[in-house]
Amino acid sequence: MSRKKILGYISAIIGLLLVLAPKFITPVCPPMENGMFMKCHWMGNMTMGIGAVILVLAIILIVVKDSKISLGLSISNIAIGILEILNAHVLIGGCMKADMACRAKTIPFCTLLSGILVLANIYYCMKERNS
Prior knowledge:
Layout: H1 3-25, H2 39-63, H3 67-91, H4 101-130
């Protein structure tokens, strides 16, 4: 199996996990007693959207034949992975208390997945550049 397809499958798995994480795998905090959502709810929604984009790009990466397009998709995955890290820590973020579900489980899980995505795509770009 080629390096491109392996990266595509890794990216697809990460994208799927990011789609599922905020609702099923590591759920964000539930609504407050008055029914209002905390900001981690919106972070989770953005994480699911980012995961869906990663999944679509991964499927395209698996299917496409041109190496230049594959390199471009890999570069975009790096940017999207960084966007997810910023989503969890800077842009929207989680609740204020460190023991809340979003801060204890969701954010570390999504940050780990995004870090793996970024590193795998950087590795692919470096190898393809030298090939």
